[in-house]
Amino acid sequence: MPFKLSDQHLAAVNRRRRVVVNRDAIHGDPTFTDPDIRDLVDYKFDFIDHFPTHIDSLWWNWGEGHQAPYPSKILPHYAETYDHPGYQRWLDEGIDPVRIFLEETRKRRLEAFFAYRINGGDNDLHLLPTRQISLKESHPDWLIHLPWRDSGMWNFAVQGVRDYKLSILREVAENYDFDGIDIDFARAPPVLPPGRQWQLRHHLTEFMRELRSMLLEFERKRNRPFLLSARVPESVEGAHFDGLDVETWAREQIVDLFALGVRSFEVNIQGYRSFTRHRNIKLYPSLDDWHSSDGYQWPPIEVFRGIFANWWRQGADGIHTFNFSYGRPEPAARIGVPFPDPVVHVWRSAQWSGTPVWETHLQAYREMGMPAALKDRDKTFVIQRRGGGGHPSLEPESWHTPRYFYANSNMLAQLPAGLANDGKADTLLRLEVADELGWRPGRIKDLSLRILLSDPAAQSLPDTQRLERTFVKRFMQARIRARKAQPPDSYYNLPPQKGIEREIEVRLNGALLAQPVIDEGWLTFRPRGTQLVAGTNLLGIRRTRPVADTQPRMKVEKVELTVRYR
User: Fold this and answer.
1) What is the pTM of this model?
2) pLDDT digits (tens, 9 = 90+) for 215-266
3) Of 49, 95, 115, 373, which is most buried with the most CB atoms under 10 A?
4) What angle do CA 268, 59, 45 make, to 5 degrees?
5) What are phi and psi of 57, to 5 degrees?
6) How far apart are CA 322 and CA 24, in angstroms?
7) What gap in Å lies between CA 176 and CA 170, rounded to an integer?
C-alpha cells in the first residue's frame, strides 16, 4: 500500500526548487588547514550571499558516511579517523558544524537536506590519511569485496547493514531539524552483490520503506514535513542494473524526489516521468563537474546552457548540481584552500575560454534555474561520451562494459562510435537540441555542427599529412597531482589524413549537408536552422570511400552543435 502523505507534506514536495545544490560541507582534504568555522561558512555561502542566483535548496554532505563531524553515539568522529587539527579543535570546543550549517541555511530561507552517501566513497581509506573503519574490520561478512577496493563495500542484502545505516539516519533525524534526507546511491555502487542486484532488489526496497516510515514518524512528532530523496542512475534501466526498484518506490510513495544521474548530459527524464506522473514526485537531473562527463570537465558556459536547456525541455522539475564552485578566491584563501587550483587554472586557460571555473559556475547558477533565462543565449549541444570521472575501466580509450555497477558509467552513451569501413552504412547518432532554431532565422548569428574524428590507420603518416591534433579530454588522475601544480595529462585524437573532409558524408534529419571545412582539426558543417528540430535530431555519418575490412575503423570522438545569437 502507498504511504499516505499529508497535504502539508505534499505542499513541501511541491515547493519551488529551481536549483538544488549538493555540497561537500567539510572533507578530509589535507590542504584544509585549521579554519575558523565562520570562515568556512563564508566560503560555502559566498555565491548565495553576494550574487543573485537560482539556488533554492542546499543538500549538505558530511563525508563518506563512515565518520561524523558532528556529535554521534554511533559513528566515530572525524578527528578520530582523519588526523586533522581543525576537526579536533571543533570537537574540543563543542562546535557542531552540522547544526551551524543548518542554522545558516535557515537564515537565508533556503531548504536544507542532509545528504547521506549510503555506501561511502573515495575518502574512507585510500586517498587520504585515515584509520581503518572498525565495523568493516569486525564484520567482513557484511561487505562486498571488489578487486579495486581493499576496504569492501556495504552489502545491503545483509540485515545488519540495513539496521546499522538506519540507526545512523535515525540519529540525524532526532538531532537535526532538516527539511529532508537524501540517500545517495551513486556514492558508491554496488550496494548489492554484483550480478544479483535485481534479484535482491527487495532488500533495498525494504530499507527505503523503513526509512520512509521512520521519517514520517518524526514528521508527526515535529508537526512539519520530513522529505525523502534518492539519488539514482540517470536511466531506469541503470537503476534496475544496480538493484534499485524505482517504480515500486514511486508506486508506494516511498520517495518524494529523485536526483537523476551524476555526470550524465543525457538523462531519461521521460522514462522516470512515465511512472512518477500524478504521484507528486519531483525529478532533478544532476550534473557533477569534478567527476565529470567524459571530455567535458569544466566546460564553457555554452555547454552548460545546452545541457540545462535540454533538461528543461524534457520536463525537469529543477536542476541538481554537485561539485560546482562554492565561491570566489578570497573566502577560499581564508580557510587554506588554494584557489584557483593551479592545475585547474592552467588547464582551463589552455583548453577552453580562459575564464576561471568559479566564474563559469556562478554564471550557470544565475541562468540554469529558469528556461526563460536560457532563451536566446549562445549554446553548445553535445552528444554524450561513455565513461568519465577518471576511473580507468570507464575511459573510452580503454573501455570495457562495466559489470559491477551502472551508476556513474554513462554506459549507454553513443560516443565514441566507429564508422563502417565498407562505405555503406551510416553511423546513426541522436543529438538533443532544445532551441527552436528553424522559426527565428533572424535571431541566429552563427550555427555550426562540429565533428571530431580519430583514425588509427593514419598514425604512421607524418604530421604534415594529417589534420591538426585536437584536444579531447583531460585525465582525472591529475586530481592526485593537483596540489603539486603539475599540468594534467591530456588525451588527444588520432588525426585523420588531410583531405578526409571530402570522404565524410553527414545527413541531418535526412538532409545531406554540404562538404565541411577543417577548423582546428574539427570537421565543421554549416546546417540551416530549418534542418533541425527542437528535440531529438537524427545524425547520420558515413565514410564514403571503402577501405579494407582489416583496417582499424575511424571513430567519431565528439559531436557539437553551437548556436550563437545576435
Assistant:
1) 0.94
2) 999 999 999 999 999 999 999 999 999 999 999 999 999 999 999 999 999 9
3) 115
4) 125
5) -145, 135
6) 9
7) 10
